[in-house]
Structures are given as structure tokens and as C-alpha cells.
Design goal:
Layout: E1 4-9, H1 14-26, E2 27-35, H2 41-54, E3 62-66, H3 68-73, H4 103-118, E4 122-124, H5 140-153, E5 161-163, H6 171-181, H7 203-215
Length: about 230
């Protein structure tokens, strides 16, 4: 018997796919996705629905929210065609252009609000504190602070907490964990640039391909190039 209900922030990428598999071990799932004018918005939405269907998440427990204002604000290569998407996993200790300013806070606020409405106890997010990338809203300290905000700003009887089960994991270990749980990697999508075949060259594709190689598994999604 499952412990209760959890909201999973499900972008449709590799990490969120594994987080859904982890949450599914103990909780009934409610899945939230955001469209924010990212370049692969349509493909990510398909991945979201495919993964949610794999876990038999009913329609009323799927929420797709409009955050197009993040695209209007700009400042990220994921939303602004004038900013180049990086093709390296090395950032020389700088926050990369793929960082969407303060995005995870917007996502988490929506997820916590929904969790409070539907009676969920947990919010799961696939944040990874990877020193090579260095997103400021993927650090453990950020989530410790955010959970204090949730505690202060919600009904006292809710006891909602944000869970980050991947936060200290290497990408290869994330793949291994997903494989052990039967995570539907073939339904996920990580490419920042393409929607039919993954480009294989953007920062996200490189990280994903390195992860599968490190884990000793074949990545099941199609790429435009077979070489890293």
C-alpha cells in the first residue's frame, strides 16, 4: 500500500523520469509540467504525457501550467533564439546560458500550491548539484531554505516537503538507479535544440550520453549522430 500522494515535477527529461520512478515506489503520483517558451516545448510536453501514462497517472492528476512569462523575461538560451546553447559540459565555474533565471522557484511554488489543494505530502524534483553545470537553484542549500519557506507559508496541517532524491548523485548513477526501477527512459527527452532526433551535441545531450556510457547502458532515444 502506498504512503499517500506526491506531486512530481516532470519536465520529461532523464532526471525527472527517474524521479517519477522513485516517487512511484512509495506514492500515488500527480504530475506537473510547465510550458515556458522553451525551444523544445512541444517535445517535452509529449515526453511528460508519455511518462505520466506509463505510470497510469489519470488526467485529473496531470497539470500543465503556462509560464510563458519566463520566456518573455528571457535571459536564457533555452528561450531566447539570440543566445547560443552551449555545446560543452565545461562552464569554467560560470552559470551556463541554459540557466533560466530563478525558474525552479516558479515551478516549486506552483507544485506546492497544487500539493496543498490536492492533499499531497511531497513534491519531488530532479535537481542535481553538478559542479560542471552549477545551476544556483539546484544546490542543496537552496532546497533547505525553500522547505523552510514552505513550512512558513502553508497550512500547518499540510506538512508538505520538497524532496530531491538525486541531488548528490552522479549522472551515471542516476541512469543505474533508473534502470533498476524500470524507468521509461525511451519516453524521455533531454535535447535542448531538436524535437525529432536529439542533436547529440548540446550540453544536455552530452551530459545524458556521458551518463548512459558511464552506466554501461545504451541510451534508447534517437540521435542525429552516433558519436559523442
Amino acid at each position: 500500500m502506498k504512503a499517500g500522494l506526491a506531486v512530481v515535477l516532470l519536465s520529461g527529461g532523464m532526471d525527472s523520469c527517474v524521479v517519477a520512478a522513485i516517487a512511484n515506489e512509495s506514492f500515488e503520483l500527480a504530475c506537473l509540467h510547465a510550458n515556458y517558451k522553451q525551444k523544445t516545448e512541444e517535445r517535452e510536453l509529449k515526453a511528460f504525457n508519455d511518462i505520466a501514462s506509463c505510470y497510469a497517472v489519470p488526467g485529473e492528476k496531470r497539470l500543465v501550467i503556462d509560464m510563458t512569462y519566463l520566456g518573455a523575461i528571457g535571459g536564457s538560451s533555452l528561450t531566447d533564439s539570440g543566445i547560443a546553447i552551449p555545446t560543452s559540459t565545461t562552464t569554467t565555474n560560470k552559470v551556463p546560458s541554459t540557466y533560466v533565471p530563478f525558474r525552479n522557484t516558479h515551478l516549486l511554488m506552483a507544485a506546492v500550491s497544487w500539493a496543498e489543494v490536492i492533499g499531497a505530502e511531497k513534491v519531488f524534483i530532479g535537481a542535481v548539484e553538478d559542479d560542471r553545470i552549477g545551476y544556483p537553484d539546484c544546490r542543496e542549500r537552496y532546497y533547505e531554505i525553500f522547505n523552510r519557506l514552505v513550512d512558513a507559508g502553508t497550512r500547518p496541517e499540510t506538512h508538505i516537503t520538497v524532496e530531491t532524491p538525486l541531488i548528490h548523485m552522479r549522472k551515471g548513477d542516476i541512469v543505474k538507479r533508473g534502470m533498476s526501477l524500470g524507468a521509461p527512459f525511451h519516453l524521455s527527452w533531454s535535447c535542448y535544440k531538436e524535437e525529432e532526433k536529439a542533436c547529440g551535441r548540446c550540453q544536455s545531450c552530452l551530459l545524458r550520453r556521458e551518463a548512459f556510457s558511464e552506466a554501461g547502458h545504451k541510451d534508447p532515444i534517437p540521435y542525429r549522430t552516433d558519436r559523442l
